[in-house]
Each structure stands twice: as structure tokens, then as C-alpha cells.
Design a protein that fits this description.
heterodimer; A: Rossmann fold; B: alpha/beta; Rossmann fold; 2 domains; 4-stranded parallel sheet; transferase (chain B); amino acid binding (chain B); Asp/Orn_carbamoylTrfase (chain B)
């Protein structure tokens, strides 16, 4: 297995800052905005994005939550039993702009599940999707509104997003997985 | 996890995973839309050969909140009254395409028989069998203890070092048996207190300490949890203690005994309670009592148990 570094800490910071600016532009400010991260790394990225948004628009507070999609997945019977993660929605999501945040966008099935999960929690005015890396290979008609880096990849490759909070360092690498 | 028959078969990792999933299920139970699609398209049958209100309703709520289709089967009024056997009942259900069976039976070991018989190829959850086990009750008790002790920081934790005193009719109690194995797996120290006549003869092989004197036991061990068991008059075909007043005086959580406990001691009871016999109303209705929390947590824990046995890649092998 060989891993190739694609993004390092400064690239990641720049990408998140750019996404934050794009969110502000599309939302015309930071009002009525809620960031919901998809566990586990999406939640960490959502917190980082919120901190950047708050630094760009001083005096604002952007609520951040986490949205676990395990129970909404369509592959519950094809994988070993998955553990769940907490869903925490700090404010009502009715009539606000919800930005879903995840680390990697791949088949689109996680996002499909997230949209179903959101429906059970309320009725947002707008739902947007922000991802750090888009690796392609969509299986559903879903696309991201804010992308840190487009990362064309082969099916046999794996994208590893490393975050200081979980892995001790920031970076994105692409890894070729050789099947036995 | 293929079946949930006994807490003896549950590993520490499995138990903690199940309790963690129950944490997330409990947040669903607080939402306006109390529904998850995880078991959509699955049919679960609640096969109750013994009367039960809270366990059956709790399982039914859990199944419905996970979007499963639910069939309730009560032996009373069914062909079981005409002499139909467990085998025939189960095979009838299997022919209808059942995905899981939740079974309560008066005979100890009935769920095991069902799981190992080959009559039905579906996961079996034991909802109480005779005087043997009641695993989801023990899991909800453990969940309740963990939640009271650690609150929002419960995830991933066991019950290491927690002192639990289980009091009363151990002999007839499946709740006590399931709790003993699970609490030991999770690292708790368990003490049993009962009249000698209400202790099973093999209790010396269990991972517990045993006492016959409740006052002495409470004073010495200073437990974090006191779990009172129901006196199961329906299973008592013998004189196990002289009379109710004496039982209450010696082994009941009377008002005086309750007031002698530290304020942080949890008082648990699996219900239904015989007020004035094993537990006084003062203890049952106090803030230290977790009785209603146990009922609420039962739904979350049963959702987690159903999720654990019904999802996973086992189905892929049939493709």
C-alpha cells in the first residue's frame, strides 16, 4: 500500500477559509445559518468552519451540531453492524440554512441518508453541502455546493483525511488499496 | 450478534456498544418524530406465552420506532390453548416470513430451544424465560446506572467499581440472574441479600458476595445502587418466609432503611412493585428511585438490541 499526500495543513486551512467565504457569499452573511457535521470528521470540520466564519464576521455565533446518519443508511444489511454516533442539533433547523459538512464526498449515499435524517428533525429553508474533498464516483444525483478540493480517484484508491483532533496531524492522502 | 438469549453470552465490548447505541436511541425518543427507518421492511413477532404489560409494550414501541412491522402473539386465546406446540407455532410464523422473534416464555430455556432448533432461521431475543434470564431488563438497568453516574459522558464507559446490592427473591428472579452476569462483565461488584430460602443452591458459583442481613450488608458495603426485587407470589408454591410483615421488616426497603442510605444511592426496581412489601412508597417515589427512568430507558435499550441482532452482514450470506 502506498500513500500519496494530496493536501497538507496549510492547504486544508486555505480550503476551509475559501469554503467559509463561499458560504457567507451564498447565504448573504452568517445569519440563520446552522452547520451540521456528519460524524466523525465532518463534525470536527464543521466546528473549524464555524470558527472561521465567526472570525470573518466578528460578533456572530454560528451554531454547530452533528447529524448521525447510521440508521438512515441503505447498506445496514451489507456491512457488519455499525455503531451509531450522537445527533446533536443545537437549535431548531426550521426555516434556516443548514450546511451539511463531511470530509469526503464519494457515492453520495451518506448525503442521501443525511437528507432523510434532516427531514425527521425539521424543515430547513435551504440545505447546502460542504465537503473537504470530492473524489467522484457518484451513485446518486447529488453534488456538493462547496468543495475544498476535487480529487479524481480510482475505485481501488482510498482517501484518508487526517485531522489534528483525531489523528494528531492535518492532511489528506490518497492510498492505493491492493486487495488480497 | 446473532441472538440475545442471555447476558452470559454478551462480551464487555458488545455490552458497551449496545449501551452506546441505546444512548443515541434515547435522543430519538425525545424528538418530535420518534422514528428511524433502520428496520423498514422487517417483520418482528412478539411471542408472549406469559402475561406481560411493560415488556411487551416496551418492545412494541422499540420495534415501531425502528419502522419494523410488528405482530403481537399472545398464547392466551391462540391455538396454544388448543394444545399447539412451540414448534408448530414457530413454524407457522416462519412460513409467514418473520425476520425476528421476541419471546417470553414461562419455561426456562425456551428461547434457547427456539434459537437452536432450526425451526426458524431468525434472530431470537429473550424477553424473559421462566426463572432463567431477562437480558434486556439487565441491559436497561445497566444503562440507567451508567446514565445516573456519568450523564452525558456515559458513552464508552462500563460500570467498573460500582457497588450494586440486589435484594429479595433471587431464587425466582430472572432479572437478578441477568444482572449478575452483565454487571460482572461491566466491572461492577455485586452483592446479593436475601433470606436463605430465596437463594438458589448454586449461588456459591456466581461471581457475587452473599448476605442474609440487609442492615449489615447496607452498612458494610455502602452500595451505589440498591436493587429491590419483586416478591413473585405467582411463582411461590412453598412457604419461603413466615409472613409479609416479617419479610418487609427483614428485607424490605422500609422508610427507616431508605433514610439510612446516602443521598446518592440509587434505588432500582424492575417493576411491578409490591409497595409496602419489598419497597416502601417513600423509597419508590423518592428522587433516588430510578423506576420510571428504567421504563423509559427500556425502549431505548430494546431499540439497540433489535438493531444489533437485525442488522449486519449476516443477510449477505443468503445472497
Amino acid at each position: 500500500m502506498t500513500a500519496r499526500a494530496i493536501m497538507q495543513a496549510p492547504d486544508m486551512q486555505r480550503a476551509l477559509t475559501r469554503i467559509a467565504h463561499e458560504i457567507l457569499e451564498s447565504n448573504r452573511g452568517a445569519q440563520s445559518l446552522v452547520l451540521l457535521g456528519i460524524p466523525t470528521r465532518g463534525v470536527t470540520l464543521a466546528h473549524r468552519l464555524a470558527a472561521i466564519l465567526e472570525s470573518i464576521v466578528p460578533g456572530t455565533s454560528v451554531p454547530v451540531g452533528s447529524l448521525d446518519v447510521t440508521m438512515y443508511r441503505d447498506d445496514l444489511y451489507q456491512q457488519p453492524t455499525r455503531s451509531t454516533a450522537p445527533t446533536e442539533v443545537p437549535v431548531s433547523i426550521d426555516d434556516v440554512t443548514v450546511v451539511l459538512v463531511d470530509d469526503v464526498l464519494f457515492s453520495g449515499r451518506t448525503v442521501r441518508a443525511a437528507l432523510d435524517a434532516l427531514t425527521d428533525l425539521g424543515r430547513p429553508k435551504i440545505v447546502r453541502l460542504a465537503v473537504l474533498a470530492d473524489r467522484g464516483h457518484r451513485e446518486l444525483p447529488i453534488r456538493a455546493d462547496f468543495v475544498g478540493k476535487n480529487l479524481p480517484s480510482a475505485h481501488g484508491e482510498r482517501i484518508n483525511v487526517r485531522l489534528v483532533e483525531h489523528d494528531g496531524e492535518d492532511g489528506v492522502e490518497i492510498e492505493e488499496v491492493v486487495s488480497a | 450478534m446473532k441472538h440475545l438469549l442471555s447476558t452470559r453470552d454478551v462480551s464487555r465490548d458488545q455490552a458497551i456498544q449496545l449501551l452506546d447505541i441505546a444512548e443515541d436511541m434515547s435522543t430519538v425518543n425525545e424528538r418530535e418524530v420518534k422514528k428511524l427507518p433502520a428496520l423498514r421492511g422487517k417483520t418482528v413477532v412478539n411471542l408472549f406465552f406469559e402475561d406481560s404489560t411493560r415488556t411487551r409494550i416496551s418492545f412494541e414501541a422499540a420495534e415501531k420506532r425502528l419502522s419494523a412491522d410488528v405482530i403481537n402473539f399472545a398464547a392466551k386465546g391462540s391455538s396454544v390453548s388448543k394444545g399447539e406446540s412451540l414448534k408448530d407455532t414457530t413454524q407457522t410464523l416462519a412460513a409467514m416470513g418473520i425476520d425476528a422473534v421476541v419471546i417470553r416464555h414461562g419455561a426456562s430455556g425456551a428461547p434457547q430451544v427456539l434459537a437452536q432448533s432450526g425451526w426458524i432461521d431468525a434472530p431470537v431475543i429473550n424477553a424473559g424465560d421462566g426463572t432463567h434470564e431477562h437480558p434486556t431488563q439487565a441491559l436497561l438497568d445497566a444503562f440507567t446506572m451508567r446514565k445516573r453516574l456519568h450523564g452525558a459522558a456515559s458513552r464508552g464507559k462500563g460500570l467498573d467499581g460500582v457497588k450494586v446490592t440486589i435484594v429479595g427473591d433471587i431464587l425466582h428472579s430472572r432479572v437478578a440472574r441477568s444482572n449478575v452476569w452483565l454487571l460482572q462483565t461491566l466491572g461492577a461488584q455485586v452483592q446479593l441479600v436475601a433470606p436463605p430460602t430465596l437463594l438458589p443452591h448454586a449461588v456459591d458459583t456466581w461471581p457475587v458476595s452473599v448476605s442474609y442481613d440487609l442492615d449489615e450488608a447496607l452498612a458494610q458495603s455502602k452500595p451505589d445502587v440498591v436493587m429491590m426485587l419483586r416478591i413473585q407470589q405467582e411463582r411461590m408454591h412453598d412457604a419461603f418466609f413466615p409472613n409479609e410483615r416479617e419479610y418487609s421488616n427483614m428485607w424490605g426497603l422500609t422508610q427507616e432503611r431508605f433514610f439510612s442510605l446516602p443521598a446518592k444511592t440509587m434505588v432500582m426496581h424492575p417493576g411491578p412493585m409490591n409497595r409496602g412489601l419489598e419497597i416502601s412508597s417513600v423509597a419508590a417515589d423518592s428522587p433516588q428511585s430510578t423506576v420510571l427512568e428504567q421504563v423509559a430507558n427500556g425502549v431505548s435499550v430494546r431499540m439497540a438490541a433489535l438493531y444489533m441482532v437485525l442488522t449486519g452482514e449476516r443477510e449477505v450470506t443468503h445472497d
